């Protein structure tokens, strides 16, 4: 998909049932699609569920240090309101505590790469990932 602007990306979505499309994608594929540009409100809700599921799966599957890279990608490719919704969803589902506990366990075990909010925020600001 190539669109000249975010407005063109939104206009392109009008001819497609984007919520159905995002729902049908694997979590990681949905995260990558969401990185391309803004989605309508209905589709954004589906995307947030996919993002949350992907982050939890990444921690389980790859461990916290590697999952942090994916979390930074999600942070960097999301709009502010999407991030707020994602964090609220994780908190509502009591999964935010799971991620925090994983981080705490990593630090207790001497994992120098354990997630720290201040380090992650600095890395997010310094990071310049873009999907071409």
Account of the protein in words:
The chain is mainly alpha-helical and 132 residues long. It has one domain (7-126). The chain contains 8 helices and no strands. The protein has helices at 6-13, 18-24, 27-34, 41-62, 64-76, 80-92, 96-108, 117-126. α2 (18-24) packs parallel to α4 and α4 (41-62) runs antiparallel to α5. It starts with 5 loop residues before the first helix and ends in a 6-residue tail after the last helix. Residues 106-132 have low confidence and may be disordered.
Layout of secondary structure:
Layout: H1 6-13, H2 18-24, H3 27-34, H4 41-62, H5 64-76, H6 80-92, H7 96-108, H8 117-126
List descriptors:
132 residues; disordered C terminus; 0% strand; single chain; mainly alpha
- The structural domain count equals 1
Structural class: mainly alpha
> Could you give the order of the helices and strands?
HHHHHHHH
The total strand number stands at: 0
Summarize the structure.
Helix content is 71%, strand content 0%.
């Amino acid at each position: 998909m190539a669109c000249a602007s975010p407005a063109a990306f939104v206009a392109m979505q009008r001819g497609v049932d984007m919520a159905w499309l995002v729902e049908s994608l694997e979590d990681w594929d949905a995260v990558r699609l969401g990185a391309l540009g803004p989605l309508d409100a209905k589709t954004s809700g589906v995307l947030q569920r996919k993002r949350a599921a992907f982050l939890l799966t990444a921690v389980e599957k790859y461990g916290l240090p590697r999952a942090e890279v994916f979390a930074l990608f999600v942070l960097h490719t999301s709009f502010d309101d999407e991030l707020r919704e994602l964090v609220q969803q994780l908190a509502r589902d009591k999964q935010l505590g799971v991620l925090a506990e994983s981080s705490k366990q990593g630090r207790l075990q001497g994992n120098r790469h354990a997630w720290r909010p201040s380090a992650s925020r600095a890395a997010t600001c310094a990071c310049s990932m873009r999907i071409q």
